[in-house]
Amino acid sequence: MKKIFQYILLLLVLAFQSSCDKGLSELNENKTSPTAIDPLFQLNNALINLSFPVSTLVYDMGIVQQVISPNGGVLAGANFNQDNRSPLSPLWQAYYRNVIRNTRDVISHTKDLPARSNLMNMGRILQAFSFMVLTDTYGDIPYTEGGLGYSDQLFLPKYDAQQVIYTDIIKELTEASGALDAAQAVEAGDILYGGNIAQWKKFGYSLLLRAGMRLSKADAAKAEATAKAALAGGVILSNADNAILRHDANYLHPIGNTLNGTEGANFFLARPFVDVLKNTADPRLSAIAIRYVGATSGPAQTPAVGTTDPTKQIGMPMGKDNGTAAAAATADGLASYYEYSQVDRRRLTKGTAPAFFVTAAQSQLLLAEARQRGWITAGTVQGYYDAGVRAHMEELATHDANAAVPAAAITTYLTTNPFSPATALQQINTQYWIASFLNGAEAWSNFRRSGFPALSANPYVGDIPAGTFIRRITYPVSEISANTTNVNEAIARQGPDKMDTRVWWDK
Amino acid sequence: MTKFFFRAAMPGFSKALTIILVSFLLPATIWSQTVTGTVSDSRNQPIPQVTVTVKRSGDATFTDATGKFSIRATGTDSLEFTSVGFVSQTIGVRGRDNVTLTLEGGTQSLDAIVVTALGISKESKRLGYATTTVRADELTVNRTPNLMNALQGKVAGVNISGLGTGPAGTSKVRIRGQSSISGQNNPLIVVNGIPLDNTNFGTNPTANGSVGGDNSIAVRGGGNTSDGGDGLTSINPDDIESMTILKGAAAAALYGSRAKDGVIMITTKTRGKGKGIGVAYNLNYTNEQPLDYTDYQYEYGQGENGLRPTTANPTSGQWSFGEKFQPGMTQVLFNNLTVPYEPQRDRIKKFFRNGQNLTNTVTIEAGGEKGGLYISLGNLDSKGIVPNNTFNRKTMNLGFSYNLSDKLSILGNANYSIEKNNNPPNIANQDNSIPTVIYNMSNSMPLDLLNANKYNAAGNEFIYSRFMNRTNPYWVLAEQFQNIRRDRLFGNFSVKYDFFKWLFVQARIGQDFWSRDQDFNNFPTGHASRPAAPAGFVNGVYTQEARRFRETNADFLISSNFELSKFGLNVNVGGNQMRRRSDLNSVQVTDFVVRGLYTVQNGRAKDPLYDLQKRGVNSLYGSAEVSYNNFLFINGTLRNDWFSTLSPENRSILYPSISASYLFSENLKSLTWLNLGKLRLAYGEVGSDTDVPPYADVLFYQINANLIPNPAGAAQPVGGPNGTTVPNANLRPMRISEAEIGVELKMFNNRVGLDLAAYRKITSDQIVQAQISDASGFIDTRINSGQSRNLGVEGLLSLVPVQTANFRWEFTANGSYNITKVLSILTDREGERITVGTHVFNGELRQIVGMEMGQIAGFGYKRDAKGNRVFGANGVPVKSDDLVSFGSALPKWVGGFLNSFNYKGISLSFLVDFKLGNKMLSGTNFNMIREGHHKITLEGRVGGVTGKGVNLAGGENTAVTPVQTYWEHLRSQAIIEPVIYNGGYWKLRQITLGYDFTKYLPGGWPIKGVKLSFVANNVLLLKKWIDNIDPESFGYSSDNLVGMESTGLPTTRGLGLNLNIKF
To answer: Contact B788/B883 with Cβ under 8 angstroms?
Structure first.
């Protein structure tokens, strides 16, 4: 009986199959969301998300002893030499999810559109930039398979060796910068340069210079060749060509946002940085720093008690937690550690402060080093050096009008702190360190590569051997958890997943 | 309508009137007489062994095998009828000498009628699978605002968790455990045969800012982590006639895809019980007292690094790593306020108020020969324990049934509710979460000072702690608001035509419609943790949302019955078309022109969102039941579903079920002690697309709300892919197959009952939301993969240990054991795993092949080969090399023991329930440890901590670490091992004491019955293993965060009364 019944039902099912199917496909059509947008909007999206995330404040800027926090918990990082895999807004997530995902899309959507070849090459340059910051930070990373979750259905990308990554980044930057063509359509909606091809070329070649110089330890020949090629292509030598993202009230600088939100009172200028500026009577100190005289708490850090007088700035000593920092403050004659100098959150790190990806100062200083090493022949070392220092001092006005350094002060500084060929590399890279202030990733990478400035190791006993510096950031927990096989392969190749393991170009 | 109805109801009405009149005219005789009568069940079958008690005298007797009794009573006496498995009933003799009575069947009735899938009523003996029928009074007398919570511990195999989220919060119901690896496990709620939307707006911090699948909808913009409730809150328990829980796949096979996790079938009242008009009034009041399970250290007070606050600011606010309390010590807080430095106990009692629930319901029932009508008006007023949290629900229910002719009948039901939920509290996060701050406040912070100093001179939040995310709770109370209003109308209308005695056709249409308006300020102006607004504006975020939801179900059913000597055949064929549409209009604005004016117009940057989702399922199904000689029943079903969310190639799925019931007691009549013996066997399959949201096959893009200028100053658009899940166009329906075996016994005049079931459920081809590498550019993807197996037993034992004329003791025990094992994810390689959710602080929930479902994982302590903990050079614990699995977060044992006593009309019952065998990651304790409130942090306050274990070189650890560094280190290292607890408990869940005053009512009064009950809920936590909190105090509604505790509201003890008056 049951069988017969089942046959009847099956017949019914067959009979109704077509009608039961009807209309269902239409129901599953989303009639409200677009399935494609102009890739230029995605380029802009990638640019916005290129702004340095807060993890570079917690780690990079602290490792190079410019900005530190005495607080633990999620803020624990460079100041405690601590391996903290979940600091605020980590670089890995920010770049892969929001930058590379978009640049991959830009490139794949424009590669068959000759009319938009410039857009494609702009995308390649941005992508090379973001991969470079990622590999400098972590070492081996998913590169060839990174950011292809949707287009290529690569969910668990394999990791590439950093050497391979750099080779390809250099190739990408060379090709993309060369292929940018002012005769093709101009992408005027681009928020970096308004589609200006000459400027994009300079941006691309400046990055190429940066990538080349990064290899000075690991592969000097390649470094030399790359630097030569970059200079020949034309790099950013004037602040007018700086690669800047101009934030506004809707798109705030992530670090500026944090320093004007929950963590405003919790980050301080580190003593080594303040001391270097102070000892050289650097006019930039008053542009950068503020000290809230007599402040006993965060809320007491009011503009009324703030002083930007460079002689009154006192940096927080490295490696103090909020207990020992209090003791240090007392020893320094301060009311509390809230009185240590801070980067001025109403000027340089205001929420709408721009982010500087590549600057004339950085390029000039890299050229100074290349010239010093004899890798390039044009110009003089001192010429590049002075131009680099000057460019950075002049650049500060772009951060905030109230941070402008007077022209006379620049000249005075260069006169009183003249370039000396005997200490060329030290001076050049110390200036690069200052010129890369607030671009933690670049300041840290150049410090690792060049060894300058000659900082004393953070005395805090943490997760790296005493007397050493953090040389890389450990992989995110999500990678260990989800992409286990591939990350373990990278660890086996590169060395233990620790902060004292050196990346390839730092060996 | 009314007129026609009254005519219909008149015969019954006049009869009742006659009796009343007669009672008045003839003085009731004071002389006792012999009253005889018959007691039968709703199918007109006599019930033996019913206790008949004269309430006045306590004299009692039993009914015989034919349901007849005889007893001495006066004309004004009241008789009480009680029997195992039936609802007790009291009636007045009112001068009669013969009384006939129908007792309503309960769970264990021999011939109880059970409403099965598609609303088909069947005798329970015919069922080859496990069901539980819940009596209406179990939901109404000792009630909870979300009606399901009243059933905690009462139903075998059903795990109910009320979340600690306020009176309108979600109730999480799991039947026979959890089977879905990363999807939904909610049972289907069916009201009068039509599915009810149970969308839950629970706290789900992982889906911040996105509109999730159909069943979990997150809040945009952060700052709001409150529980917005679920669909069940719309139901007034007074309207419920019966509730049946279908547990297994075979039981639910006819409901198809959405029934994969069982079905809760609610039948609301559609007509009066007897003839005539009945009016009833029910009052329920409970007072909810917040419970404090904290056991803080009160030796060292507020401060950090062993120092108390001695200068004006900063006050540590959230740390208790200060100095040892000594008499006469002071601390300096806020703006230079010097106050005693002493422990502040009882913060929980001081901050939270007693909550209250008051329900008033009036019902009108009318019944006649041709039909009846039921109308109810209900009002629930709740005050939450958070001082500004209130919930009001007004319900109006109309049910009717009428036989238009001998062949044509109609049945309908409409329920309208207005729910207003104001300020459901934020929980389980940092920003704006009152319980998080209260539980983790420094132990010497005076609350009244915190209240008095919530504003600074500029009128903004006073920064009382450098931990600025810990918003001052009094400031949150004063400044943050949320209003939720839901209007809901659901109901259905059906027409049935009996072509022949053996064949009928039924057509039905039902709809669930709601609109939900919600507005809230995610971050009020002046919030300390928010940056200042651009010049000319004040900061803050405000969101306004309107949602509409409509689900319609149209179905038909052809049903036929044949009898052929000893054989019976019942065949049903039907079809259903389901269409659902939900849309959301939302605008979020940031920064305001005028302070305190939270409107869209007043906002600076506006971010509008419109979301529309549609889905549909078409279904055809049929069932056939063959019976033999009333003791063997075999039932088969077949159903085909077509899902809109899946591709045309994958959308159709056909699945069967078969079940058998064998009443072996019918063949063992010689065993007189055996009243009923039944064996059940069932196998069923279900296919489902539940975990596939609409449009999951395509990647969509979005344009950001705000433009950004290019260097030339022209505003430019910004956009990109929408969502972080990689779409998959090739998903197939997931499949569930379940086999069960059960036995049911009734013995010794029904005084011993046993119902056992064992099941094995395989869920395969699951739709898994699998975490992928962030380096892919996405967070996760949906794939068809994975298999899990639920194995379990459940049982119900009912006993009547004592039964005398005046006293009766009933005891029931129910319990279930379920274990779900993950058999495969991508492959069946042991140890393969996915992460399905991440705790708001540290730790995650994983599914691991070869292990129990729901593993809590995170870093533990690194240990050497001998198991010693390893410490670093600085003396802090080193974390394990990899994430460690600490065990399953799903309870293995769930159950309860109910004792009820009845003595001369006084009824007393108490319920003890338990959940055992689950692990829990306590975020609350994690904070207490890192901030120095937990007693574990007392060691080493002076001189530092030297952890017991070895150093990196393998020698004994001798390094000393300051105590605060030691414990804070665990947080930044994400070492969760010290806060993994056994999450089980034993609770005295309910006490109910009732008395029926009916017998005191003079016969002629218009009041026909008065019953008063005193109720207590969540009375006592008998046993727990977790420190400082009630293990029930918080659970996310999401299965992807089960066991991930983060501070919720304190649980409450409810004390109150229920008054029921019948006219």
So the answer is: no
> Among B579, B772, B777, whose Cβ lies nearest the Cβ of A101?
B777
The helix/strand/coil state of A32 is: coil
Task: Name the token pair of A380.
Answer: 């003089």
Say whether pLDDT at B14 is over 60. Answer: no
Kindly state whether A262 is in contact with chain B, defined as any CB-CB distance less than 8 angstroms.
yes
What is the SS3 assignment for A105? helix
DSSP class of B956: B
pTM, 2 dp: 0.85
Q: Is the peptide bond before B1031 cis (omega within 30 degrees of 0)?
A: no
SS (H, E, C) B304-324: ECCECCCCCCCCCCCCECCCE
Whole-number pLDDT of residue B120? 73
For residue B622, give the chain A residue with the closest CA. A9
CB contact under 8 A, B616 and A249: no
For the residues A185-213, what does the mean pLDDT come to? Answer: 96
> Quick check: A466 and B873 CB within 8 A?
yes
B360-391 burial string, b = 16+ CB within 10 Å, else e? ebbbbbbbbebbbbbbbebebbbbbbbbbbbb
Token pair recorded at residue A428: 């050049």
Looking at residues B743-752, what average pLDDT do you find? 89
The amino acid at A88: L
Q: How many CA atoms lie within 13 A of B263 on its CB side?
A: 32
Q: Which of A11, A27, A297 to mutate to test the interface with B (most CBs of B within 10 A)?
A: A27
Residue type, B832: E
Higher per-residue pLDDT: B842 or B956: B956
Q: Encode pLDDT of A313-361 as tens digits.
A: 999 999 998 778 888 999 999 998 999 999 999 999 999 999 999 999 9
Mean pLDDT (whole number) for B622-627? 90
Residue with tokens 């109704």: A16
Residues in chain A: 507
The full DSSP string for B597-652 is --SSTTEEEEEEEEEEEEEEEEEEEEEEEEEETTTEEEEEEEEEEEETTS-TTT-E
Asked if the Cβ–Cβ distance from A97 to B648 is below 8 Å, we say no
What is the maximum span of chain B, computed from C-alpha positions, in angstroms? 106
Is the distance from CB of B652 to CB of B617 less than 8 angstroms? no
Q: Name the 3-class secondary structure at B267.
A: strand
Residues 6 or more apart whose Cβ sits within 8 Å of residue B764: B734, B735, B736, B737, B786, B787
The DSSP annotation for B675-715 comes to EEEEEEEEEEEEEE-TT--TTTTS-EEEE-SS-EE-TTS-E
DSSP A79: G
Distances B985 to A416, B291, B422 between C-alpha atoms, Å: 75, 15, 32
List A residues 236-255 in contact with B (Cβ-Cβ < 8 A).
246, 248-252
Q: How many CB pairs under 8 A join A and B?
A: 326
Q: Is B468 helix (H, G, I), strand (E, B) or coil?
A: coil
Q: Facing residues of B783 across strands?
A: B768
| Selection from B184, B1038, B214, B183 nearest residue B580 by Cα | B214
Q: Alpha-carbon Rg of chain B, whole angstroms? A: 31
Give, rounded to a whole angstrom, the gap between the first and last alpha carbons of chain A: 80
- Host H or E run for residue A490: helix A484-494
Phi, psi for residue B457 in degrees, rounded to 5: -60, -30
In whole angstroms, what is the distance from residue A361 CA to residue A104 CA?
30
The Cα B851–Cα B824 span in angstroms is: 10
Asked if residues B989 and B912 have their Cβ atoms less than 8 Å apart, the reply is yes
Sign of CA dihedral A295, A301, A304, A307: positive
As a dihedral over the C-alpha atoms of residue A425, residue A428, residue A431, residue A433, rounded to 10 degrees, the angle is: -50
